[in-house]
Design goal:
With 504 residues, this protein is α/β, with parallel strands linked by helices. The protein has three domains: 3-93; 111-250, 3-Layer(aba) Sandwich (Rossmann fold); 251-504, 3-Layer(aba) Sandwich (Trna Endonuclease, Chain: A, domain 1), CATH 3.40.1350.10. It has helices at 10-18, 49-57, 80-85, 122-129, 147-159, 178-195, 210-220, 256-262, 274-279, 281-290, 295-309, 324-335, 351-374, 436-454, 473-480, 494-503; strands at 3-6, 27-29, 42-45, 61-66, 89-93, 111-116, 137-141, 167-170, 200-204, 225-230, 235-240, 247-248, 265-267, 317-319, 339-342, 345-348, 387-395, 410-418, 421-428, 458-464, 483-486. The chain has a seven-stranded mixed β-sheet with strand order 8-7-6-9-10-11-12. A six-stranded mixed β-sheet has the order 13-17-18-19-20-21, with helices on both faces. Strands 2-1-3-4-5 form a five-stranded mixed β-sheet. Helix 5 (147-159) packs antiparallel against helix 8 (256-262) and helix 10 (281-290) runs antiparallel to helix 12.
Amino acid sequence: MTTTFVTRHSGAVDWARQESHLPLDSVVSGSFDAESVQPGDLVIGTLPAQIAARICERGGRYRHLTLDLPEGLRGVELSAEDMRACHARLEEFHIQRSSVRAGARPADALNVHIVLASGENLPNLIPALARSLKAHRVLILASDAMRDNAKRLQNGFRVAGLAENHVRIRPGCPDHDVPTILAWARRWADDIAAEFPAARLILNLTGGNKLMTIAFLQAFRPCAEIIYCDTGNDRIDYFHPIGQAAERLPVNLLKLRPYLAVQGYQSREETPGSEGIRERGDLTRALVELAPRIPNLLGLLNSAASCYRDARLDRAFVGQPTRSDEKELVDLMVEQGLLNATGIRLAIANETASIYLGGGWLEEWCWLIGKKLEEGESGKRLRVDRWGINLKIDRCDSQTLPRPGQYALNELDAVFIHRNRMLLIECKSGAQVSERGKSQDILNKLETLGKHVGGRLDTKWLLTARRIEPNSQAWQRAIKYQITIVPPQELIKLEDKIIGWMTR
């Protein structure tokens, strides 16, 4: 690190040396090129603001020689003693430009986003989809530790609509030692500015670590707008230009598939047919309304459905109920072709019936609510391509495509995307949640799905048709995992609950 005193006045040099401001290896010069500054260099002088700003941008420090100079001494060559009489002193300034780079951009200028790959990809993707910042090109700067996340982010941009050759990764970004990060960032800032001379450059500093944020802020300030995506408060803040007002983050920028892709997942094309769901709509609503009062019947149906799937057909049946409300339900199931009446027994009719009666009716309830909300009023409307049920998902980085019939890595019972957030719903109609061991597995799975699929913006609900005591181990574990349990008596209120999640 070098100390340079920029002055043509011998008295100033004498004063600085007498006051011990100049180390032995200092440089005294009458002219100065700010582009020669290296991180940590100290420059002393009375320099114009734009030169002092460039010193700071390059990672140097600037100390201004300040004097309380009376009118009569203006333009007079001062001695060291004169300077002391004028209270000469060095004051350190960090000067920051309020403007970006000079030059008018054409109306159709490209928006080039520069992002730092990190463990949270969503805040890097979301602003690039906003109309005011819409990305036409994206450069992902990635450290060695973030190469895999950078690839997921790149795939997320592509699934969101950017052409494959418009999203590039630049690896090798250092993630420690500020001078090293600053030198790397400065080099790429110059290269990017040269590659896109007429573009609007937008540096998203939501990613990276703190040291990277500091260094990239300095390096890109002369050529780029610099933003931060505050997803928690739905806003985009500006580091630079200084004083630029924050923007509200538009809702519904993210569709389901880009959301999954940026998290490292892809969904299969397999989707449940809507015709059967609509035909079973009245039965589904009846099951939801009666769920708090018919736990025994639901348990028997679950058991029979499980036996059918395990090919134990001699046990895939339930007895004729005696209660009137249960009998009406069963009659409707027979009418729908889900149960076959054989004397005093009711047998599971087919594979579709085993899925539905084994708990699929809860997922279908989510589907019916989703379709209704698609037609809801403004602000309470779910957009198409932003929700689904029974989504089978695989890792995007799988070495081979999933084969027909191959089990998916995971299945999402129901998922909704709104306000760039994800609501994950797990549906359980049997006694699994009330059984100690199985409840732990279910809650662990949902907590893991939330972390890896939903990311930091996830909300997790467990819909259950069986009552869970608030003081039970399962309930307490759900609280610990930030999972909301929706009990049987609240299933009928699911639409209002989802609207509440959408609007809060």
